[in-house]
Amino acid sequence: xxxxxxVAFYTLGCKLNFSETxxxxxxxxxxxxxxxxxxxxxxxxxxxxxSVTENADxxxxxxxxxxxxxxxxxxIAAVGCYAQLKPEELADVNGVDLVLGATEKFKITxxxxxxxxxxxxxxxxxxxxEADFYVGAYSIGDRTRAFLKVQDGCDYKCTYCTIPLARxxxxxxxxxxxxxxxxxxxxxxIKEIVLTGVNIGDYGKGEFGNKRHEHxxxxxxxxxxxxxxxxxxxxxxxEPNLLKNETIDFxxxxxxxxxxxxxxxxxxxxEILKNMKRRYMRELYVDRVNKIKEVMPHACIGVDVIVxxxxxxxxHF
Length: 317
Description:
Layout: E1 6-11, H1 15-30, E2 34-35, E3 44-49, H2 54-70, E4 75-80, H3 81-85, H4 87-91, E5 98-100, E6 122-124, E7 146-149, E8 151-152, H5 163-167, E9 171-172, H6 175-187, E10 192-196, H7 217-224, E11 232-235, H8 245-253, E12 260-262, H9 270-276, H10 282-295, E13 300-302
Parallel strand pairs: 1-2, 1-3, 3-4, 4-5, 5-6, 7-10, 10-11, 12-13
Antiparallel strand pairs: 8-9
Helix pairs in contact: 7-8, 8-10
C-alpha cells in the first residue's frame, strides 16, 4: 500500500490569503496528498506569507521553527505576498526549501519532485508585471463561513502600501465564475460568504484580460444576492470612493447582504490623505458614513486608521 504524503498549511494575513490557501490545499488533495493540521507531522509544510504588517514578517521564522519541530526532515515552502516581495530573504531562512512568487504559488505541486531537503532555498518568482492574469479562489471547510475571492491586485499607488508590488495590477474574476464558485460553496451547506480581494470595489476591471470594466461592483452584488442557499453575504474592506450610494441602497434592501461595511479611513486629515495618495478626502468619507446610517441606522462600520504617518504632527492627529 502506497504511503500518501501529508501536507499542512499555515496562513498569515488577510481573508484573501485564507481563500487562496484553501484553494492551493484542494490542489494538493487532487494530487493525492493527505491534508493534516499544521501542528501534526507532515511531509511538506506550506506557509502563505503576508507583507502588510511587520509582525507577520517576523512570525514567519517562528512558524518555520514549529514545522521543523514537528518534522526536522519536512520540506518547507513559502508562498504569498512576502515571498513575492523578498524571496531571497525567505530562502535564506534556515529550513526553507522552496519560495514561490505571485504567479507560481498556484502551481506549487509542479515544483515538487522528491521532497528532499535543499541545501539552499530554491526561488521561483516572476517580475510583478507578469502577474496580469486572474486565478480564482475560495475557502471551504476551514471555517464556518467561506471567503470568496472576486478580485486581485491594485492599481492604486498609496505611498505606504506594498500590495501592488506583491500582487500586481487590478484584475477580476468573470462574473459567471464568481457565481459558479458561490453555488459550489452553497452546495457544501455553507450559509455565509465573505467577498474578498485586494480592492473589491474595483471589481470588473480586467475581467476578461482587458482594463475596462465589463461589470461593476454593483452588478456583482446584485447577481450574488440571487444565489440560492446562501443566507448571509458580507462585503469585506472596500475603499470609500468605490462604495457608491447605489450599492449602499441595494444592501439596505437586500435579504442576504448583512448591514456591515469595513471602510478604510487611514487618516482624518486631508493633508495627510493627500500625502498618502489616497483617492478621497475626509468629506467624502463622512458622506458615505452618513448615507449608510441614513438607510441602515443599525449598520456596523469598521475602520482602519494609520497613526504616525511620516510628517504627521499633533495638529494633524
